[in-house]
Amino acid sequence: MAAVGDAIRMPLYRPLAGDDKLEIMAAAQKSARTPSPPSRSTIAAHLPAAQPRAALLPRRTRAAESALDVEALVRQGIDNVAIERYRYGAGRVEKVESFKSATA
Predict the structure, then answer these.
(1) Rounded to two decimals, what is the model's pTM?
(2) Which of 81, 87, 89, 92 could form a disulfide with 101 if both were Cys (CB 3.0 to 4.6 A apart)?
(3) Dihedral through CA 4, CA 40, CA 32, CA 16, nearest 10?
(4) Collapsing DSSP states into helix, strand and coil, what is residue 1?
């Protein structure tokens, strides 16, 4: 969290930062469409390092981000927005419509 917070220049909200693992899992299960407890292997596969080398991460993060043209990336993202609508019924997903946004 320190490495990400050090690299970002905008407000960063962490609504789950004060919760423990069980509270976060309960919130995730409550908001999931198919409520089933995650298996240990799915959780472990996505866990970040608990104690990253704090002295190296901020420097590496800043170095990697300094090479990015953030404004161009945001512009590219906005210019390529597509809206897709889907419908789910009878156990199938069906694409209803797809179009580029008005900004493109």
Answers:
(1) 0.35
(2) 81
(3) -30
(4) coil
- Confidence check: pLDDT of 52 > 70: no
The beta-strand segments (E) located in the chain are: 82-89, 92-100
C-alpha distances in Å from residue 79, one per residue of 20, 33, 41, 65, 67: 39, 31, 38, 22, 21
CB 19 within 8 A of CB 70: no
Residue 36 is classified by DSSP as: -
Q: How far apart are CA 98 and CA 96, in angstroms?
A: 7
Residues 85, 96: contact at Cβ < 8 Å? Answer: yes
- The residue type found at 44 is A
Taking the C-alpha atoms of residue 37 and residue 19, their distance in angstroms, rounded to an integer, is 18
Q: Which of 103, 66, 59 is nearest to 83 (CA)?
A: 103
pLDDT tops 90 at residue 25: no
